[in-house]
Design brief:
The protein is α/β, with parallel strands linked by helices. It has helices at residues 9-20, 54-57, 66-78, 89-101, 115-130, 147-151, 187-204, 232-243, 294-297, 313-328, 331-350, 379-391, 416-429; strands at residues 33-37, 40-43, 48-51, 108-112, 134-138, 170-173, 211-216, 246-250, 274-277, 288-292, 356-362, 365-370, 394-395, 397-399, 405-408. Helix content is 37%, strand content 16%. The protein has a 7-stranded mixed β-sheet, with helices on both faces. A 4-stranded mixed β-sheet has the order 1-2-3-13. The structure holds pyridoxal-5'-phosphate. Pyridoxal-5'-phosphate (PLP) binds at residues 56, 114-116, 119, 142-144, 217, 221-222, 250, 252-253, 278.
Length: 432
């Protein structure tokens, strides 16, 4: 907060931003971030903001973790880039590590730069290998900003509007979102309805023999931090197996300890055919990946896909260090414990506050859904809470198709004191 008569050093940059930065970017907050460490970001005035956004689920090990910084500094002096036509050690090491971490038999890994690129690559591989065109996706999903990823995204109209025509052969069914379903209170029925809609697709729209893949988020991210019924992936696995369809699980937001396991899929015991990873993978450096079984990837012939920067050595070194930190500091376990405590506390806070419709989450992926007096999604209230938090130097984001959900995505290693501080601010800002 700037006192009267002091100069706000953010201001000059904000003016330059307006002048030169493409305004399409949706900015929240009015600060220019100068540096960050642990659970805090610091603006140009040196003011500290407690960060419950982690760069949208990226800085899972906190900002600028010293071990990640050291690995990056070492690598950058040794090898910064080489083309994908040559081998390099960090690339191979990361693939080996991810093969070790990924569920079941997923042992063959491709590296790219962003979540959307992982989506694109996985869809191309599934089409190439199955020889089938169609994709089944879910209402409320978010898969990224490239054109195919946008076509697969249905979390908000504004991600799609005016970008048509989209690639075809995409068939969308409801995500089992219990709170906004007519079957609230009966998760089995909510899930049955989703599965019936998939069967109906096969009767009315597309032969299952034409479907290459089912693409799904294990916990809905941008669409509202929705935890589906526990046997959702299992039911999808059964349909996929029945028809030779590849099950692609998008762990871009849920991965790397966020939900209390290294990957949310682990809660389900399901082995996807392809698993997508990005965001938290490299502690803040750009990297993404998708893992599959060798028997699938070896049918994708050399040269059919590639990337100039994908698997950059510096990003790979950061990924190896980040994964080590997650394992050494037992951060998935910490996320599970801390997340359960936070949800319990916030549920208690929500009692007798009818405008808080639901508090839900898995690990440290926590959503708070706001209602108006008719029980409808309340975007204004969620935005008001986010704005109040910002004024109190706590950064939080909204999500949900209507923008009616506050999402908490703090660092997995935030301290007890930081947790208490953040929750106290949040509760103060949620009191209406
Ligand atoms: C589930 C999911 N998939 C894909 C993406 C796209 O990732 P990126 O922004 O790195 O392209 C996101 C980003 O928020 C995501 O949450």
């Amino acid at each position: 907060m700037v006192m009267a008569n002091t100069v706000d050093k953010n201001q000059d940059y904000l003016e330059l931003d307006v002048k030169h930065v493409n305004p399409v970017l949706h900015r929240v907050g009015r600060i220019v971030v100068d540096r960050a460490r642990g659970s805090y970001v610091y603006d140009m005035n040196g003011d500290a903001y407690l960060d419950f956004t982690t760069g949208i689920a990226v800085n899972n090990v906190g900002h600028c973790h010293p071990k990640v910084v050291a690995a990056v500094q070492k690598q950058v002096a040794e090898l910064m880039h080489t083309s994908v036509t040559t081998h390099h050690k960090p690339y191979i090491d990361v693939c080996q590590k991810l093969a070790e971490l990924a569920p079941g038999r997923l042992d063959s890994v491709f590296l790219a730069n962003s979540g959307a690129e992982a989506v694109e690559g996985a869809i191309k591989m599934a089409r190439y290998v199955t020889g089938r065109p169609a994709i089944i996706n879910f209402r409320g999903s978010f898969h990224g900003r490239t054109l195919m990823a946008t076509a697969l995204t249905t979390s908000k109209l504004y991600y799609r509007e005016k970008y048509e025509p989209f690639p075809s052969s995409i068939y969308t069914v409801p995500y089992p979102y219990e709170y906004r379903s007519y079957h609230r209170g009966n998760p089995d029925k909510v899930l049955d309805e989703t599965m019936e809609q998939i069967e109906l697709l096969f009767t009315q729209f597309v032969s299952p023999q034409q479907v290459a893949s089912i693409l799904v988020e294990p916990v809905l991210g941008e669409g509202g931090y929705v935890v589906p019924p526990s046997n959702f992936l299992k039911r999808l696995r059964e349909v996929a197996d029945q028809h030779g369809i590849m099950l692609i699980v998008d762990e871009v937001q849920t991965g790397f300890g966020r939900t209390g396991k290294m990957f949310a899929t682990e809660y389900t015991g399901v082995e996807p055919d392809i698993m997508l990873m990005a965001k938290g993978i490299a502690g803040g450096m750009p990297l993404s990946a998708f893992a599959t079984r060798k028997e699938i990837s070896q049918k994708w012939l050399p040269g059919r896909h590639g990337s100039t920067f994908g698997g950059n050595p510096v990003s790979c070194a950061a990924a190896l260090a980040t994964i080590n930190v997650l394992q050494e500091e037992k951060l998935p376990e910490r996320a599970a414990k801390l997340g359960a405590e936070i949800v319990q506390r916030l549920k208690k806070f929500a009692q007798n506050r009818p405008y808080i419709g639901e508090v839900r989450g898995q690990g440290l992926m926590i959503g708070i859904e706001f209602n108006d007096e008719h029980g409808k999604p309340n975007k204004d209230m969620a935005e008001k809470v986010a704005e109040r938090c910002f004024e109190n130097k706590l950064l939080i984001l909204t999500c949900g198709s209507h923008g009616q959900v506050i999402r908490l995505i703090p660092p997995l290693n935030m301290s007890e004191e930081e947790t208490e501080k953040g929750l106290s601010i949040l509760e103060k800002c949620m009191a209406f």
